[in-house]
Amino acid sequence: MAERPVPVPVERLGFAMPPVFATAGETRAHRKAGLAEGLRLLGRLGYEDGVAGQVSVRDPEFEDCYWVNPFGRAFGALTPDDLLLVDGEGRVLRGERRVNQLAFAVHAAVHRERPQVVAVVRTQGPYGRALACLGELLAPLTEEACAFYEDHALLDEYAGAEDPARIGRALGPYKALVLRNRGLLTVGDSVEAALWWFLAAERAAQVQLIARAAGKPVPIDHRSAVATRARFGSDLAAWVSYQPLREAPGGVASTS
C-alpha cells in the first residue's frame, strides 16, 4: 500500500506576498511598472473611453507627487517610460506629454484627503456607470460583493470635475465611491489593490443589475456580510486576487 501523502510545509508552497523594497528608487520602479501593467489590463478589458480614464500612484519619496498616465494615449501600449510625474497642482514634473487636468484634479483631491492611499482608479465601465445612474450602492448579493459591504460610499448628487474636493471628501475612509451619474472610483494601498477593487466593483454592479432585471434579489444578512468582508475585503486580499491577472496568457506583464 502506498504511503499516505503528508502536507507540504507552507513555506515551500511559493505563495507570493507584496514585495518590500530597501530604497525609494526600487519602490518607485515597482509602482511605475505596476501602474503601466494595470493600464494595459484596463485597456485590454475595454475600460477606457476616448481620453477618459486615469490611474494615479503616489511617489514613495515625494509624497505630494503622483505618477499618472498621459493624456490622449491609449492604455494598451503604455510602459513605465510613458508615465508622467505630476505635482498636486497638476504640473508635469517629468514626462513628455500633457496630463488630463480635469481628471487629475479628482485624484489629487482624493490623495490629499487620504494620505495613506497609494493608488486611485477612476475610469469607465458600463455596469458601474449604470449603477451610478440609479444612485445605488453595491448590495451584498454575492460573496464577492460583500468585500464592499459598509466599505464604500455614494455621492448622491452629480459632481462634475469642477468640484474635485467634494469627491475627495465623499469617499471618506472607504475603498470605493459610487459617483452618481458618473461611475466608480476605487483606492488601495497598492496599485494592484486599487485596480482589483475597480474590477471587483464593476463585476458586482453587473451581477446586481442582472439580478434586479431577473427578479427580486435576496441580500446576504448583515452578520454574514460583515464576516465575509473581514475575510475578503482587505487590500492584501485584493493584491492576492489581482496576481492571476498578471500571469494570464497575453497578460499585462508584457506589452505584446
Automatic annotation (TrEMBL):
Gene3D superfamilies on file: Class II aldolase/adducin N-terminal domain
Species for this entry: Streptomyces lavendulae subsp. lavendulae
Assigned keywords, A-Z: Lyase
EC class (word): lyase
InterPro entries in UniProt: Aldolase-II_Adducin_sf, Aldolase_II/adducin_N, Aldolase_II/adducin_N_sf
Identification of the protein by name: Decarboxylase NovR
Gene: novR1
A single cellular component GO annotation: cytoskeleton
Domain of life: Bacteria
GO molecular function, a single term: lyase activity
